[in-house]
Every structure is written in C-alpha cells, then in structure tokens.
Amino acid sequence: MAAARFKKLSSVAAIVHTLPTALATCPPNRRQIRPLASGKIGNMLQPSTPDLRAGSAQSLPADCDPSSSSSAASTSSSSSDLLARSWTAAASGYDEMFVPRFGPWTEDALSALRRALDGEEGPPPPSRRIVGGYKRALVACCGPGQELLPVAEIVGPGSEVTGVDISPGMVRIARGRIAATESERGAASGAEGGALRAASSIDAKVGDAMRPPPGPYCAIFSVFGLQQLPNPIQALKTWANELCPSGVAVVAYWPPGKVEDHGPWARWGDLIRRQSGKLPPPSEGSVWDENVADALKAAGMDMLEDCFVLHRIQWDNPAHFWEGMTQFGPWHAARLKKGDKFVDGLRDKFCSAFKPNSPIIHSPRARMLVFRKPL
C-alpha cells in the first residue's frame, strides 16, 4: 500500500509549536499566517534510498555560520564548492534531524502558496484562472526534496515541478523521493492518491539557484536557501523575472542578525565573531535584508505578505544540539573551512551557557515573503 511509504517526519525529531497557529510578527496591513492542517508535512515521501550521503543549499541563519553567509559564500566558486561538500557529508543526518524541525515553517510557506494561487491574497485575485495556463513551478534550493510533492499538489494536476540545488548528493536524495512517488503513482487512494496523481512531472537538478532553468513559472518556492546565495537580492530579482503574469513566489529565509536575540544559534554567532574579530550584526554582509522589499517593488512585484514567523524547536540537551549542528547541520561547513580543531575547541564554551542535562528550546525567527507578478 502507498500509505506504507509515508512516514511522519515528526516521529524523527521533536517539534514544538509556539501556538496552534504560527506566531507571526507582521508589518501593518499584513495578515497573520494560517498554516496547513496539522500533519500535512508529515505526509511527505521518504527517500527510497535512505543511506545516500548528500548535501543541500538549505541551511540555518547566515549570521550563525560564517561559511554560509552571503559575504563568506561570495563570488568565489570555492565557497560554493565548500558548501556542496559540507552538505554532502552531512545531509543524511540533516534530512532526519533538521527537515522535521523546520517542518512548521515549511507548512506556513506551503499554506501561503496555496492561498496566493487560490486568489486569497491581495488584489487582484483571478490567479487560478489566469495562471492555469502555466503549470510549471520552481523549487529553488530544494534540498532533499521534501517540498517537491506538496508544491506539485498545490499547483494541481498536470503540474511540472523542478527542484534545483547546489549539492549533487542532495539532489540524489530528492530523486529518491521522486522515484518513490513514481512507484506509488496510481496505487494510492484518498488524499495520498490525489497528491501522487497531481505530481505529473517532478524533477530535481544540480544547479545554481541564481541561474535557474528559464521560466515562465506559475509558482516559485524556496525555504531556507536564499540567505546562502552569493547575492540574495539578485536571486530575488531573477526569480521575479521568471514568473509568468500573475505568478506567485513564496520565499522564506533566515534574516541576518534577526533570527535570535538569545539562544543557541545566537550563542554560536557570538563565539564565531569573538574568534574571528568580526563585528556583530548588522554587518556589511547583512545589509541586503534591509533592501529586499524595495528591490521587489522596483522589480514591479506586488508584495502580498512580509512576515516574521517563529516556531519553537526542542533538543534533548546541549550535547545533542552541538553534535547535530556540527555533524549534520550548517556548522559542519566550519569544520571544512576552519578545521575540526577550531570547531571542537568551541564546544565547551558553547555548552557552558546551558544546563548540561536539560533540553534546549528556542524560537528562531524566519522572514517570509509572498509576492506576485502583476498582469
């Protein structure tokens, strides 16, 4: 049965929500976020080959990992290569440990995409009817591919969804999910069967999200990849240009210097800055976030939502958090860039800020943009 292939990601790691709905801090005239029904993201297909080692351009805040910031992953190809190698080494653990923890934010973004395509967001809203002639969608920085099937289901029958990621290994994991979808096509029933049949064409490719396959796309979707790109503003402009008339983009990212005022990610950022002598945010590399709204307006986009979204994440204890972040998460890139000795030398300093046998619970703040290309 198809249901046997579905595994609730929440069973892999604990996810604790702040509220039954997302806690969102929105600018004036922005609506609160309405997430998908509980458990929606738990119905994503697991890789058919779970032992694959892969990497992803999806990541945590830029200010928490110098190797993933826009200044560190700059114009040099060596920085991109480092990120791809890091995610290749870390990604199977990332897929198990971080994908479920980031699930609430992904649910919010998917819900926003559905609302926008259904015409519930902002004027004018004949989106489904007008965008209906376009069935192509792009998932930029697709990571292990957990978003591909839900995006296809939202776009609808006959959709053509392409995921692009910097890491060949992560694309292999995404293709494992796609292969599982293909094997189950037509065998499932009910809601699962509807989602599978909606996935008429799904592909994942190794590529640069700054230069994605040309559109036009009715939808562009990206969660936690933008902050790692060499030029996030240019990436947004490129994605906006690739939208079809009335096409919609949903982009969630970790805003530099604004993710946590206190907490484990803020603690790591402080330690790194002390070691490297860098100034605290806002630094030169974090200025781009202040220019996002103006850049999209200049590109002719209609901003439908611009919100900060928080959810709580729980870890067993400081050691659990540290091992996850440095072995399977974005801090692993620091091992490749600065060496194991440097990273391991920070362990005791990091853990000393927390009770050794107590859980770590923190509430990172992501920014979510929803914008539409006018007719």
From TrEMBL:
The keyword DNA-binding does not apply. InterPro entries: Methyltransf_25, SAM-dependent_MTases_sf. Residues 40-77 are annotated as: Disordered. It comes from Odontella aurita. Residues 59-77 have a biased composition (Low complexity). It comes from the Eukaryota. Residues 1-24 form the signal peptide. The keyword Signal applies. Keywords: Signal. This is Methyltransferase domain-containing protein. Residues 139-185 form the Methyltransferase domain.
